[in-house]
Amino acid sequence: MIDLYGMCSPNVTKVTIMLEELGLPYRTHHVNVATGEQFAPDFLRLNPNNKVPVIVDGEGPDGRPFTVFESGAILLYLAAKTGRLLPAAPAARSVVEQWLMVQIASIGPMFGQYSHFCRFAPPGNDYGRDRYASETKRLFKVLEARLAAAPFLGGADYSIADVATFPWIRTARAFFPWLQSDDVPVRYPALERWLTEIGARPAVQRSLEVEQHFVALDLESFGKADAEAVDRFCGRGRFAQP
Ligand SMILES: N[C@@H](CCC(=O)N[C@@H](CS)C(=O)NCC(=O)O)C(=O)O
To answer: How far away, in angstroms, is 112 Cα from ligand 1 center?
Structure first.
């Protein structure tokens, strides 16, 4: 059994997609970031970086429980555990890893910061907002070009590169101001084809149900959150690092 610690987040949905694709048994544990559970000593023992997702694999490599944090590392761990969604041949494997790294190093951080400026930052900050809008547009163009040339990010086959990227594109389509117009499918036809195809996979559908479960729990906890709790979540105000 795998224990998954999470909330509603593209980084967590990556992991539920992977677990569903692999058919591995798992149970979820909601981490209430509105009350600061990610900073609790018990959680920090799982992830000293105070973030979800984290998994604890009850049957780790040597048969004992094994903890993995960082969503990209979790995907690589599960691919290695099962031998699936990451090719064995060195060249094919490297291509998948390159696109996985694009998600981890660029898409996640840039999309995450743009979301922060759009949803949590006070008015103003035009330079930051514009910078992240521009960078997210650039990344959409990079993905569009790749998916116009290949069915999947890693090439011919669905892989952990797609698993990692799909939830971020879906979230961007829902929240980014510059993606809220009717001509988006026309501007990014290859991305739309890929999004539709992956969204129709039964494992992805099941993982989106798990995401809804986390949405309900997050709404409940953030519904009770005061300004101080939001400051703690955003690491600002009296929670800004000295
Ligand atoms: N690079 C990390 C990012 C994880 C991350 O940013 N998690 C957020 C939710 S999307 C979180 O736990 N935030 C709580 C906090 O930072 O206190 C990963 O891919 O796992």
So the answer is: 9
Ranges of beta strands (E only) in the chain are 2-6, 26-30, 54-57, 66-69
Q: What is the pLDDT of residues 87-100, one digit of tens each?
A: 999 999 999 999 99
Q: Which of 68, 24, 76 is nearest to 46 (CA)?
A: 68
From residue 36, how far is each of 13, 17, 91, 214, 233 by CA, in Å?
21, 26, 43, 16, 7
Q: Which atom of ligand 1 is nearest to the CA of 36?
A: 17
- Any atom of ligand 1 within 6 Å of the Cβ of 33: yes
- Taking the domains of the chain in order of start, what are their residue ranges? 2-84+209-239, 90-200
CA neighbours within 13 Å on the CB side: how many for 218?
A: 13
* Nearest-CA residue for atom 2 of ligand 1: 70
Between the CA of 148 and the centroid of ligand 1 the distance, in Å, is 30
pTM value is 0.96
The CA 70 to ligand 1 mean position distance, Å, reads: 8
Fold of 2-84+209-239: Glutaredoxin (3.40.30)
**C-alpha count within 13 angstroms, C-beta hemisphere, residue 196:** 7
Is any ligand 1 atom within 6 A of the Cβ of residue 113? Answer: no
**pLDDT tens, 35-64?**
999 999 999 999 999 999 999 999 999 999
Under CATH, what is the fold of the domain 90-200? Glutathione S-transferase Yfyf (Class Pi); Chain A, domain 2 (1.20.1050)
Report the nearest-CA residue for atom 11 of ligand 1.
Answer: 51
124 pLDDT above the threshold of 90: no
Determine if the peptide bond prior to 53 is cis (ω within 30°): yes
